[in-house]
Amino acid sequence: MDQVPGSPHKPQDAQGGDGLPGCSRHPDRPTGVRCTRCDQPICPECMVSASVGFQCPSCVRGGSGTGHAPQATAPRTIAGGRIATDPRLITMILLGLNAAVFLAVLATGGTSSWLPSRLDLVGLAADPSQFRLVGVAEGEWYRLLTAMFLHQQIAHFAFNMLSLWWLGPPLEAALGRLRFIALYMLAGLGGSALSYLLAAQNQPSLGASGAIFGLLGATAVLLRRMNYDMKPVLILLGLNLAFTFLWPNIAWQAHVGGLVVGAAVAFGMVHAPRDRRTLVHVATCVVALLAIVAVVWVRTLQLLG
């Protein structure tokens, strides 16, 4: 991305649509954060973690005033991740995986085929001749993961993928690749776990919606951390929750589970103390995963009992 002409240490105060100044390198992105060295407005993509606050890439490269060489060689995101040259790589990989599975489902005959029936989320099913355990309750815990990549209809697939493309890159840029994929997977698993816990025993569920709602919750947490205007994301979240509960045949449990886990994991990532950031991030992800395992274990014991 080309830098805005002019002195790299002259604050750029072009106002964004919500009254915040535009980023000095990306004027179309309003931001409430400024470089601690030159006071330029900087967006999440341009933020480099410093000993105090954040710095812009120009000051990091110039090394003006601090004498800390590691800051110039190892710039970090707001969550402590490495700044990637392409902040959309993981998002595009996830899009590709979802598309590949969707095409495989179509190729094998749709939702009645073996592929989705063996990979979607099922707790307990009633057989005409016998009552038998299937799915997660039978020990097929992999369904908690595979259900995240299945979609029943093209509209279902298209809406989730558009949401992923819209929400994914900014979060990937702000968190870093490893933290972003951890957030996505945990949110998706959280949605599967709550769906398994609360949905009807013989009701399968599938879709990336739990992970998408996790990204939406994480976006709200990140914007709050950045002191951005929360109204747009809160309105979007409210509309999505209303749609979740008012539209028939939607697994609201997966949406709520993904939202809660995604917001909780993101909070741990962006609010971790700098000197213990890695430890807090690992602990946050481990606690979230243990909570998911506990929910699945309790529900399985209920079904088996």
UniProtKB/TrEMBL annotation:
InterPro entries membership: Peptidase_S54_rhomboid_dom (IPR022764), Rhomboid-like_sf (IPR035952), Rhomboid_protease_S54 (IPR050925), Znf_B-box (IPR000315)
Annotated localization: Membrane
Location of the Peptidase S54 rhomboid domain: 139-270
Domain B box-type, residue spans: 23-49
Region spans: Disordered: 1-25
GO CC annotation terms, alphabetical: membrane
Domain of life: Bacteria
Protein's GO biological process: proteolysis
Pfam short name (any one): Rhomboid
TM spans (from-to): 89-109, 180-199, 205-223, 254-272, 279-298
Membrane topology: Multi-pass membrane protein
Keyword vocabulary terms for this entry: Hydrolase, Membrane, Protease, Transmembrane, Transmembrane helix
Molecular function in Gene Ontology: serine-type endopeptidase activity; zinc ion binding
Similarity-based family: Belongs to the peptidase S54 family.
Protein name stated in the entry: Rhomboid family intramembrane serine protease
Organism expressing this protein natively: Streptomyces caniferus
